[in-house]
Design brief:
Layout lengths: L5 H33 L7 H26 L12 E8 L2 E6 L4 E4 L1 E5 L4 E7 L4 E4 L6 E4 L5 E5 L5 E7 L11 E7 L1 H12 L8 H12 L29 E2 L4 E2 L4 H12 L13 H12 L3
Parallel strand pairs: 1-5, 4-10
Antiparallel strand pairs: 1-2, 2-3, 5-8, 6-7, 6-9, 9-10, 11-12
Pfam families: COX2, Cytochrom_C
Keywords: Copper, Electron transport, Heme, Iron, Membrane, Metal-binding, Respiratory chain, Transmembrane, Transmembrane helix, Transport
Function: Subunits I and II form the functional core of the enzyme complex. Electrons originating in cytochrome c are transferred via heme a and Cu(A) to the binuclear center formed by heme a3 and Cu(B).
Length: 296
């Protein structure tokens, strides 16, 4: 009900008109019923039932159905030239996001420019998921073996919460996708920063964390471009410190959250395909946390 894109404007308008139309049908039907009850045992003129109970509601509902089809007809049209193409792949239970034009890979967070059409190419690597960001547009399924399309034109900068709208397993409820809509110039700066590889660790503790990241096998699942390339079984961590949340919206990515996530991942998100690091020495956890906190 708070649309922030061209497509969401259409859907909100259709929703309001259908609700008002539905209420009008209900009110008219109840009015005819009330008049009939007031007449007691006296016979009701047939035209009351015909007009108020059948022809009137059927005509109004048919008109609403035709109007809503015409009003939403353009929502599944092909994206216009110049649209930003972003591939979003659903996995249990996180989102793999790829800006193919510039080779940027991120996870669980979608950043878009305001005022530019966006073509989301939606896929799934395992089961059926469904992407729904209510403020920005309609819902679309992500089906293994096919690519579905969702086109939206974000209008208002801000952060909007999306979710998986198709039950997909144990942690379905913790599979959020935050969409951050930025002014065009700010989006260009963010995308250029994301395209750069991770910088070298700046402190001794972070350098030790980088070594432990390799020794502990974290690089078998997580890529850090410039340090550990190639793996994609888990979210890309090249710029993980710049994201708003960890674990697909499970916890806010603020001070100490990265180290806490490593220790309590199975408590915070049971079933996640990442082993908990509660057995690690405190020094190793601090070093890993320092290393990841520098991946901005």
């Amino acid at each position: 009900m708070n649309p922030a894109s061209t497509e969401a404007d259409v859907l909100a308008e259709v929703a309001w008109v259908l609700m008002v139309g539905g209420f009008a049908v209900l009110a008219a039907t109840m009015g005819v019923l009330a008049l009939a009850l007031r007449r007691g045992r006296r016979p009701v003129p047939p035209r009351w039932w015909i007009v108020g109970g059948a022809v009137g509601p059927a005509t109004l509902l048919a008109a609403l159905a035709v109007w809503s089809q015409l009003r939403t007809a353009g929502l599944d049209a092909p994206p216009p030239p110049g649209a930003l193409v972003v591939a979003v792949t659903g996995r249990s239970w996180w989102w793999h996001v790829q800006y193919r034009e510039v080779g940027v890979v991120t996870a669980n967070e979608l950043r878009l420019p305001a005022g530019r059409p966006v073509h989301l190419a939606l896929m799934s690597d395992d089961v059926i998921h469904s992407l729904w960001v209510p403020a920005l547009g309609g819902k679309m399924d992500l089906v293994p073996g096919r690519i579905n399309r969702l086109v939206m034109t974000p209008r208002t900068p801000g952060t909007y919460r999306g979710a998986c709208a198709e039950f997909c397993g144990e942690q379905h409820a913790k599979m959020a996708l935050h969409v951050v809509v930025l002014p065009p110039a700010e989006f260009d700066r963010w995308l250029a920063a994301q395209a750069a590889p991770a910088g070298p660790p700046r402190t001794d503790e972070a350098r030790r964390g980088q070594q432990r990241f390799t020794d502990l096998g974290c690089a078998q699942c997580h890529a850090v471009r410039g340090h550990a390339d190639g793996a994609d079984a888990g979210p890309d961590l090249t710029h993980v410190a710049s994201r708003l949340h960890l674990g697909a919206g499970t916890v806010k990515n603020d001070g100490g959250a990265l180290a806490d996530w490593i220790v309590r991942v199975q408590q915070l998100k049971p079933g996640a395909r990442m082993p908990a690091g509660h057995h690690l020495p405190a020094g190793d956890l601090a070093a890993l946390g320092a290393y990841l906190a520098e991946r901005e």
